């Protein structure tokens, strides 16, 4: 019997709201490929342990190699845009995510499969549409945190974690949505452990 050591327990799929990245103190720069859609973008697919800790930078011998994923780049520009300054085409962001996080799931997913898994998962979860159906729109208004969580829970079937940041006036706002994914990278599951951090009881959903 061949026995693999379990090198992580689950993934966090982390999606970011561009409006909340951009209106914070750090500000943002649009990618060289153009302003992203008013949609959540992928931040990353992060291997994690059940105790809340996580591995990182697991294999420097398997660096990001864009030639392996050339037929995913067009989708990644759409679904995984970089907002960091200075403006970039995304390669630096994707390389960082692969090197820091992706290499820690390389026993399960090749580089191609890793990026494809994140893209496929995002396709299954249209957060803007889910929130809109619940009357929650990116219009600068504030919404009860639990209305946002319940809308996602009702649509996806599992409880999400919401990460907030603050805008330049200090208002708590919807920054990132965490969903948990099994080690195959294919199935959304209930989170074995939630991340940490504070939101207000009502949070802003800024326009983008
Ligand atoms: P921050 O300190 O801004 O929350 O996170 C900085 C970075 O640490 C993130 O971009 C991510 O790479 C990593 N990180 C933060 N929290 C987690 C977590 O719960 N799990 C994993 N796998 N990585 C995390
Ligand atoms: P993490 O380590 O938290 O997974 O990723 C954060 C790193 O990715 C930071 O170095 C940040 O500058 C870079 N980065 C590039 N583009 C983006 C973006 O659109 N959003 C976030 N959160 N980080 C980005
Ligand atoms: P409970 O487990 O009772 O729903 O929440 C426990 C605490 O975690 C409360 O302070 C609540 O405001 C906070 N909390 C619950 N869900 C989230 C979330 O998705 N994101 C953040 N940042 N805090 C949350």
From TrEMBL:
Keywords: Disulfide bond, Endonuclease, Hydrolase, Lyase, Nuclease, Signal. The keyword Zinc does not apply. Transmembrane segments: none annotated. The keyword Signal applies. Belongs to the RNase T2 family. This is Uncharacterized protein. The lineage of its organism: Eukaryota, Viridiplantae, Streptophyta, Embryophyta, Tracheophyta.
